[in-house]
Structure formats: C-alpha cells, structure tokens
C-alpha cells in the first residue's frame, strides 16, 4: 500500500510504502533510526538488524542525508513520538543518493541558511512555518467564502499608486511609466461597487529600504473591500477574521506549533471582540510610559506599537489617526475633521501592525480635493473618481499583511522565515 506520512495513521499494523527523503539518521549498535520526511510530515523509520537482515541494515546505515528513497515498513503506534507513529522498516530502495548535503545538523549562520534557502525549506522548523502559512491561507478563503465575498484579482502592474509613488518600484510599460503594485485596494473598491463584498490575495511590493525584522520588499496581502460597510462594520469583520485564522491554526497545526515551541495559551485568548483605543488615547499612554517626545501628528514606530500592545493579551485597534498621517482616500470623522475613520491592528508580543484599514471617502468633491492636496495627477485617478460619480455608497476595507501574521501566530522572530523565498534589501537570491 503506497501512502504518505500524514496518512499512516489509517494503516496501523499494516505494511506501507512511502516515498521520502532522509532528513537525518543515527544508529545504536544493532538498530538504525531513520528520520524520514515526505513533505506531508516527518516519521521515524526503525531498522532492527536481527529482523531486517544484514543487507537491509547495511543499506540503512550507509544511506546519506537527503537521499530520496522508497521506504517500506510496518506502521506502529508510538506514544513517545510527537507524531504518534513510527515505521518498522522492511524494505529500502534508493531513488537518488545525495552527497555532501550542505545543511548538516550543526548550527549554521543566518546568511548561510538564506543562501541555501532552497534547501533550508526542508528543515523541520521551516516545514512547520510553511504549514502554518498554508493553514492561514486556507482559513482565509474559508472565512470570506462562507460570508459571501467574491475573490477578485487586481493588477500587479499599475499606472498610479494608492499612497503615492515614493516607495514603489518603477518600470517601463512600453512607452509609459508603470509601478509594481503596493496595494490592490483602489481596484478592489471598483470591484466592490460591482460585486458588493470582495477580497484579493496577492503579492505587493514596497521599495522601502528597511532592514527590520518586520519588513520585506515583496510580501502578500489579503485585501477585502465592502460596499455599504461603515467604519464600525469594518472593524467587526477584521476582528472576526483574525480570530478565525488563529483558531484554525490552533485546531489544525498543533504539531507544527509544538515543533516551533509556540506558547499556545497566548493564542487561545485571541477571540473577538478586540480592545480599541484612539490615537489620542495611545499618545496619552505613551507620554505616561517614557515616550514624552512623541507629539500629536507623529506616526508611531515599532517601539511605540510594542509598548501599547504589551498592555493587552489580544490584538488592539488604534483608531482615528490624524488626517495628515494617512493616505488621501480615507474618510474624515464628521465630528472631527482632523482625524480619519481608520484603524491599525497591532498584534501582541511585539509583532507590530498586521492590518491597516479605513472607511473610504465616497463623496466625489471631497476625494477630488484630497487628490489635489496630495499632489497626485488627477488624470491617473480619473477612473477612481468615477466610482463616486455613478452610484457612490459608503464603503470600507482593509489589508492584512500575511507574513507578519504568520510570524506572530507561529512565534518566529523574523518575517524572512515566513515566506518561501524572501526578498530583502540585500537579497534577491535564490
């Protein structure tokens, strides 16, 4: 019976064959222990010389790290294994023998591992992070599909930018200027006017020369946009969505979280609703906690966000930022024009902002004025303005950064581990 490691629990007491790679091995006298992986999981294969015979035992001891194999064996329950099963090996066929695999069980430096990212992905730790990333993506589609959202794919090449072009990658589109998208939001607003509730999931690019553990040059965003949703409606969707993906990871990635040493008790508390504080309240908190130099109108940096988040055991919304800090399309608060109806969602444990969202301006005249105030080219936004001419409605949306969310939920320190092939300020290889 040919199967995968993830499915061996269905075949306890039966002999199966698995296509696998040898992650590691050790031997103790007359027993060889093979650490096997096949992409779906990891399992230990045990070769007992007295039972397997001299030839098979010799082959098991000789096989090299990361050689590919067909392994046949008897599935046994094993309470000592985190996985719960092991394989008593009865047959071994080498498909391709690996020589001098560069990533050995010893410690390696970060740059070395990043140079060998194509191989580092095979490790238990990276496997666990990628499985958690995949579960967040699966749960994302589940959440929005169950609530009647339509998946829409905005373009990656654009002629304008939602937040100006200072941090965008410029390219030529035949004889025109073009940019790699930093957000699909404007296009998602158009889609929401056609389909009601929509979401996108795709790559975005920021030409920001940052080296922090929270930043990537290329990252993935989930961007919902909702017609007839006001600011409060928007916050409710955000907290329900984040709670859903956290609980899904807890339910479906227990082994991966354990492998990463994640304190799951902190994740178990992540249920809606989330606490909310205004920008003004956040500023007051910072002044009382050693950040007296932050003035009204200043943006919050990583140390400020971390200090605020440490006061809560759930993600916290910081709402009503000064208009001057935010992009041109955000709806001002009717009772206080100097702030906008926006919120940043700050993750606990120092992981920073994972969501930025707002109610969008739906008034044609006000949006026209904002475009001029931000020195944007009106011609480039003519189509965007037309959305306000033909049946404009209040609408809201947000964007969640996938890699920061993966980092927070999995508990890894740096976002470079949360994407298969990270693009950093100093790295375009492999």
UniProtKB/TrEMBL annotation:
GO terms for molecular function: asparagine-tRNA ligase activity; ATP binding; catalytic activity, acting on a protein; nucleic acid binding; transferase activity. It is an enzyme of class 6 (ligase). It comes from the Bacteria. Pfam families: tRNA-synt_2, tRNA_anti-codon. It catalyses: tRNA(Asn) + L-asparagine + ATP = L-asparaginyl-tRNA(Asn) + AMP + diphosphate + H(+). Residues 130-430 form the Aminoacyl-transfer RNA synthetases class-II family profile domain. Keywords: Aminoacyl-tRNA synthetase, ATP-binding, Cytoplasm, Ligase, Nucleotide-binding, Protein biosynthesis. Its EC number is 6.1.1.22. One of its GO terms (cellular component) is cytoplasm. SUPFAM superfamilies: Class II aaRS and biotin synthetases (SSF55681), Nucleic acid-binding proteins (SSF50249). Belongs to the class-II aminoacyl-tRNA synthetase family. Homodimer. NCBIfam families: asnS, PRK03932.1, PRK05159.1. This is Asparagine--tRNA ligase.
């Amino acid at each position: 019976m040919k199967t995968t490691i993830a499915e061996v629990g269905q075949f306890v007491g039966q002999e199966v064959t698995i296509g696998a790679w040898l992650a590691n091995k050790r031997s103790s006298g007359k027993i060889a222990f093979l650490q096997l992986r096949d992409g779906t999981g990891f399992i230990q294969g045990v070769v007992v010389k007295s039972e397997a015979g001299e030839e098979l035992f010799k082959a098991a001891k000789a096989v090299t790290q990361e050689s590919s194999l067909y392994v046949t064996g008897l599935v046994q329950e094993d309470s000592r294994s985190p996985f719960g099963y092991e394989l008593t090996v009865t047959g071994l066929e080498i498909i391709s023998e690996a020589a001098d695999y560069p990533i050995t069980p010893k410690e390696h430096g970060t740059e070395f591992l990043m140079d060998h990212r194509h191989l580092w992905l095979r490790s238990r730790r990276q496997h666990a992070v990628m499985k958690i990333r995949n579960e967040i993506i699966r749960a994302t589609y589940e959440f929005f599909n169950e609530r009647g959202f339509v998946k829409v794919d905005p373009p990656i090449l654009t002629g304008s930018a939602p937040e100006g072009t200072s941090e965008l990658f410029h390219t030529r589109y035949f004889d025109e200027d073009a940019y790699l998208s930093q957000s699909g939001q404007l296009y998602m607003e158009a889609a929401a006017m056609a389909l009601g509730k929509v979401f996108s999931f795709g790559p975005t690019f920021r030409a920001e020369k940052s080296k922090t553990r929270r930043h990537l040059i290329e990252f993935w965003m989930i961007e919902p946009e909702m017609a007839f949703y006001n600011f409060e409606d928007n916050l409710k969707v955000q907290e329900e969505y984040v709670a859903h993906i956290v609980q899904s990871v807890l339910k479906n990635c227990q082994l991966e979280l354990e492998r990463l040493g994640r304190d799951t008790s902190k994740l178990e508390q992540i249920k809606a609703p989330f606490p909310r504080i205004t920008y003004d309240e956040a500023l007051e908190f910072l002044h009382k906690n050693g950040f007296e130099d932050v003035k009204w109108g200043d943006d919050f940096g990583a140390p400020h966000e971390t200090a605020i988040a440490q006061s809560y055991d759930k993600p916290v919304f910081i709402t009503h930022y000064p208009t001057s800090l935010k992009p041109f399309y955000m709806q001002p608060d009717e009772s206080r024009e100097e702030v906008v109806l926006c919120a940043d969602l700050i993750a606990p444990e120092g992981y920073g902002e994972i969501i930025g969202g707002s109610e969008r301006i739906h008034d044609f005249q006000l949006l026209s004025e904002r475009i001029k105030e931000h020195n944007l080219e009106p011609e480039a936004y003519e189509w965007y303005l037309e959305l306000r001419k033909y049946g404009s409605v209040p609408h809201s949306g947000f964007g969640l950064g996938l890699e920061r969310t993966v980092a927070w939920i999995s508990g890894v320190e740096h976002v470079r581990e949360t994407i298969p092939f990270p693009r950093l300020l100093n790295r375009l290889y492999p």
